[in-house]
Amino acid sequence: MVSLDSLDFFLFRVSTDFSSPLAIFIQAQGCLICLLLALGWACASFVRNREINRIKKNMRNGNSFAFLCHDINELEHSNQIDLPRVTVIMPLKGFGEHNLHNWKTQLTSLYGGPLEFLLVVESVEDPAYNAVSKLLADLGGSVDARIIVAGLSSTCSQKIHNQLVGVEAMHRGSKYVLFLDDDVRLHPGSIGALVREMQKNPDIFIQTGYPLDLPSGSLGSYCIYEYHMPCSMGFATGGQTFFLWGGCMMATFLQMHSEDFRKDNCGVVSGLRDGGYSDDMTLAAIAGAHKKLISSPPVAVFPHPLASDLNFGRYWNYLRKQTFVLESYVTRVNQIMNRALFAVHCYLSWSFVAPYCMAVIHVAAALRFNARGNSIEELSYSSIGLNMVWLLVTCTFVSLFSMWNLTRIEVLLCNILSPEAPPLSLASYNWCKVFIAMLVDNCLYPLSAIRSHFSQSINWSGIIYYLKDGKINKIERIPKRQDVAPVFTDLGGKHLYGRKGMPTRGSFLTSLSKCLFQWRQSKRSE
């Protein structure tokens, strides 16, 4: 009984301390963060929903192909033959449960202009090499695609190295280059939509999009979904943005032409090649330094299925990679911006979590106070904290509802943009896990950021990168061992070496893609 009295005294004392002006400010700040998140997601929902309404209106007006383009006249032969050549560069690494389907959505694009795919691997020993070779053989030459072996990187990340090798090998007649990650599902009209925006506004330096995470059910997958959702606000602008996502970046080939390689315009090549770790952060910094325009069209949202066995350890390594990105920089201004982002994100993350920790104390104290009644008159208890708990609960529900609504709208938009694909469903989302993931992710982010800052190294896909002065200055590769389990990447659950994939049978989009390819071949022969 004495120990229980001591516990009660502790709870009442801490609850009273958490009712001080400073504590109330911290709790009110957490409520404000929830409301700001809700507002941001509401604005993003408005942009995405406006695009849905536009597509539906075009369909009602007789345009059955509104998911490809708003004006059906753009599908006329006279317009299709004038479309610019596009080169799609896909840096591949490993082979996982979703890769085959993702590759097929990318290779079977319904873009009507000349289109080539360069699938870049680091070596023929990569499981992706055999898997994609079989897929291309199954497509039977219906797409203009080839595999390039890039070799190992020595001065930059392996992904950037693969991208630059792909740029050097691309067709000289290409006007646009599109970089795609292999874990992204593309819509049939995505490439065409990106090209239209580039042609409408020649001032666009790079176009980008953002993923819609499809959690697999594990807490780690929900943590990744929750991490991406606040970031998605910056990409749901329907136009100009300041952010880049490396999973989808389209640039004008003039920025990547051989002459520009020699002249190194804007420092694009040197910024990536000489110690570059993150392609998107590097290019975003270059765009900002040279006042270049980054754009994100409203239809550029792509399903991103997460691995069914994505455990918490792989999530932690992914979070480490995201915070490690802030340790790399191109210029002094970029370094200052990254440091500011580091500090602000850490502050906001723990400011978000702290009120919930206080709320637990307030609720526990209230329960014990009601259970004991007036048996200990000398103890004082304030109900102010409990009022703050109710305010926090209300703001949390508003925030979760806004996140749910944005996810619902993006799921609907993806279903409209890919009518042939199996429809995505919101029913698979567990919103209790989403709330837990919000707390876990924001609690761990500062720890991960601090770890990245002091370690200056990261193990990503079996490669250890070391930074010095914001650049990669050392690369170590973990040797493959036959007596250990396969190494996995963090999101797609890929085997980095060992398992080989088999393509599945063709789809309706595959046959349409073959028809388009044969049509283009016949026009060339004419």
Structure characterization notes:
- It comes from Vigna unguiculata.
- Its EC number is 2.4.1.80.
- Belongs to the glycosyltransferase 2 family.
- One of its GO terms (molecular function) is ceramide glucosyltransferase activity.
- The chain crosses the membrane at residues 20-47, 340-364, 384-406.
- The chain has a domain at 84-311 and 497-525: Spore Coat Polysaccharide Biosynthesis Protein SpsA, Chain A, CATH 3.90.550.
- The termini are far apart.
- Strands 3-2-1-4-8-5-9-7 form an 8-stranded mixed β-sheet, sandwiched between helices.
- Strand 12 (463-468) and strand 13 form a beta hairpin.
- It has 16 helices and 13 strands.
- Helix 2 (21-60) crosses helix 13, helix 12 packs across helix 15 and helix 13 packs across helix 15 (431-455).
- It is of the alpha/beta class and 526 residues long.
- Mean pLDDT is 84; it is low at 254-262, 482-488 and 497-512.
Total strands? 13
Q: Which structural class matches the secondary elements?
A: alpha/beta
Radius of gyration: 26 Å
CATH topology name of one domain: Spore Coat Polysaccharide Biosynthesis Protein SpsA, Chain A
How far apart the termini lie comes to: 95 Å
CATH first level of one domain: which class? Alpha Beta
Q: Give the helix proportion (percent range).
A: 40-55%
Q: Quick check: average pLDDT?
A: 84
- Summarize the helix and strand pattern as letters: HHHEHEHEHEHEEHEEHHHEEHHHHEEEH
Q: How are the strands of the largest sheet arranged?
A: 3-2-1-4-8-5-9-7
Q: How does the major sheet shape up?
A: 8 strands, mixed
CATH superfamily placement of one domain: Spore Coat Polysaccharide Biosynthesis Protein SpsA, Chain A
Number of helices: 16
Unreliable spans = 254-262, 482-488, 497-512
Shape: globular
Percentage of residues in strands: 5-15%
* CATH architectural grouping of one domain: Alpha-Beta Complex
